[in-house]
Amino acid sequence: MRKIKIFCDSSVALTQEEADLINVTILPLTLIHNNKEYADQFEMTVDDVNQLLAKKEIIKTSQPNLGLIISEFEKAKEEHYDHIFGITIAETLSGTHSAFNQAAVEVGLDNFTLINSGSISGIVHEMIRLINSMNEEGMAYDLIRENLNPLLDNSEIFVYPQTLDQLKVSGRISKSAGTLASLLKIKPLLHFANMGQTIDKFGTARTEVKIFDMIVKNLIENNVHPDTHIIYYLESSALEIIERFDLYLKENLGTFETKTLQLPAVIATHAGLGTMVVQWMLKI
Fold first, then answer.
1. Least enclosed by CB within 10 Å: which of 90, 236, 249, 267?
2. Which ranges of the chain would DSSP assign to H, the alpha helix?
3. 232-273 pLDDT, tens per residue?
4. 131 CB contacts (<8 Å, ≥6 apart)?
5. What CA–CA distance (Å, rounded) separates 137 from 14?
6. What tens digit of pLDDT does each residue of 160-172 get?
7. At which of 110, 138, 153 does a domain end?
């Protein structure tokens, strides 16, 4: 079988052990707290992030260290892989895609395919699975890339934070707007279309059921069905919310294949503890 390597940034939400089993090397995003930089998952764990979020601390995020990317690409070049794939978080959310491209040019990787996931986590998991499967079949590398397009073209994300506190702390919304929403007990629902430009407000409601209903209506409008689509749940201390939503989803649309991952720091640092993300995508 042909020897391939897949590079991802840490928004993929894989443990190192899981990554090792599927030909993946994780290049950590950078977390910044009190002007000190930490490698996501390596020098600052999910538990560390959650503890800081519980204290309403400000954590900023940045792309992986360029020198580290170059070093890992050089190692891959020396190991003579038949082909190397790079999959990054949406380039509208991070400069990681540009950094991967810059490093590949500097190292001189001529057997490299760079893919902008246009999203986070779940869709990257599915692409990794498909790349490995198609490689085992001996499919041409350009055809492997082409066959990922239906997945990339059929995915959306909903972000349901429990409060606007962390969004206020991180400066994503004004303090006055956040305070007013809290006083009125308004629950926000945020939306990120695949290949979207920003995470936008999708709607607001006073009850959790109304939030759930907005998500389900979107699924119906996009012909998302258990036979044709898979759903990833991403969470930051939100497993009980996921259980309630999943029950609501089953009652309205049926039983989907679902997978649950920890919410990557790049989202959790802005959305805060208690955040649930629902990510639907085409089943391939």
1. 249
2. 16-21, 46-54, 66-78, 96-107, 122-136, 141-147, 149-152, 165-169, 175-183, 208-221, 239-253, 265-271
3. 999 999 999 999 999 999 999 999 999 999 998 878 888 888
4. 4, 6, 85, 144, 148
5. 25
6. 998 766 665 555 4
7. 153
pTM: 0.90
121 and 165 both lie in a single domain? no
Together in a domain, 12 and 149: yes
Strand-pair category, 229-236 with 257-262? parallel
Residue 162, domain CATH = 3.30.1180.10
Angle subtended at Cα 249 by Cα 245 and Cα 255, rounded to the nearest 5 degrees: 120
| CA dist list (Å): 117 to 121, 196, 277 | 9, 11, 17
Structural domains of the chain, count? 2
Domain match, 30 and 61 both: yes
The tens digit of pLDDT for each residue in 172-224 reads 444 444 444 454 467 889 888 766 666 777 888 989 999 999 999 999 999 99
CA–CA distance, 59 with 225 (Å, rounded to integer): 37
123 plus 19 within the same structural domain: yes
d(CA 161, CA 235) in angstroms, rounded, equals 10
Question: In terms of domains, do 79 and 215 share one?
Answer: no
Range of the domain at 217: 154-282
Tokens of 50: 């959650």
Distances (CA, A) of 284 to 75, 99, 151, 166: 32, 29, 7, 36
